[in-house]
Design goal:
122 residues, Cysteine Rich Protein, 2 domains, two-stranded antiparallel sheet, two-stranded antiparallel ribbon, Pk/Esn/Tes
């Protein structure tokens, strides 16, 4: 098995990943996403950099994911702060929904707050 390096008995089912080449095989439980370890045996998988990826993490390896709506951001125009990304329409205060582009804000636990709402929480 490519993952656990244990032998695969002849009567045991195996997973072959076409994109990895048929010389590689896995126990069904060992064929998992390289990022989240989600089992991939019954899912569509992606092969990149010599590893299997689930759809979610493969897409995140190519494009950022919006911290506001959890969707992949396809536009080149988005807001990024401290390693997180937002569509411009989602870069808004969690409490009052004021758009925050160009305005002061606080970021705590991936939540955005305008100055007014941030002060009212104290």
């Amino acid at each position: 098995c490519e993952s656990c390096q244990q032998p695969v008995p002849g009567d045991c089912p195996v997973v072959y990943a076409e994109r990895a080449g048929y010389s590689r095989q896995w126990h069904p439980a060992c064929f998992v996403c390289c990022r989240c370890t989600e089992p991939l045996v019954d899912l569509i998988y992606f092969w990149k950099s010599g590893a299997a990826w689930c759809g979610r993490h493969y897409c995140e390896s190519l494009r950022p994911r919006c911290a506001g709506c959890d969707e992949i951001i396809f536009s080149e125009d988005y807001q990024q702060v401290e390693g997180l990304a937002w569509h411009h329409k989602h870069f808004a205060c969690l409490e009052c929904e004021t758009l925050l582009t160009g305005k002061p804000f606080t970021l705590a636990n991936a939540s955005l707050l305008c100055s007014t709402c941030s002060q009212s929480r104290v």
